[in-house]
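Entry 14: structure prediction run for diacylglycerol kinase (ATP). Input pasted below.
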Amino acid sequence: MENSFEKNNMLKEFYIPTYIFMPESSVEQVSHIPSCPVIVFINTRSGGQLGHNLLITYRKLLNHAQVFDLLDETPDKVLHKLYNNVERLKRDGDTLASEIHRRLRLIVAGGDGTAGWLLGVVSDLKLVHPPPVATVPLGTGNNLPYSFGWGKRNPGTDRESVISFLKLVKEAREINIDSWHTVMRMKCPKRSPCDPIAPSDLPHSLHAFHRVPKTDPEDMEYSYTYRGGFWNYFSMGMDAQVSYAFHSQRKLHPEKFKNQLSNQKQYLKLACTQGWFCASLSHPMSR
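Run finished. Output tokens:
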């Protein structure tokens, strides 16, 4: 009983009240200021059923309002809304909003692509003091979480495992990472509608920008511009091709991607068919 009481007290250190997320909310008096307030983003498509189970556990332990399913809400909209509201509450003299702004940490559960997505969103916010990001290794390779000491194996989704991870987040030391940013412009004829690729069909690492206007002297054609980033390391070529093929196949056939081992098998299969280890027999040039 005492152990359960201590854990509930510990969870208060991560808790963010609902009014912090509400655009029309007013300042509220609170008795406790959390030492490590967190926002949690979970890609429920990652890790087979693990992502969904992890979402349920986090929402049971924390405020439902501070845990987000990335299939339902994108991190850019969530964070823009949060920071706009926090700034408004700070102007109204809300002490809790000021402390949450200063102490906030983000947790992202997913693969390397999901982690890169959130890092890109945080970078685009152009904050003076961006919140540190902890990565839950919920993908197939999990190279990014492994690079920063969060492990490589998919995590447990039970209450005890989540509480243990929250403790690690609270105790973690903030470090900086290298990043590279790229801009890609795609042209199309003037008479073509050239609609941009839908956000849901883009890799998480890319963000679409507006069309170049007709009057632009440097470009007599319409074009769309996409901005992307690499985090900690970058890679181009066949591994990117295989990663995107894996992402596309998982969207089409989620039932084939049930756990980390089966995901790794699918990844290996795609690598072989696209010629990682030998010329691909399915490639047009091999016929």
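Notes: The two ends are 69 Å apart (CA to CA). Will compare against the previous run tomorrow.
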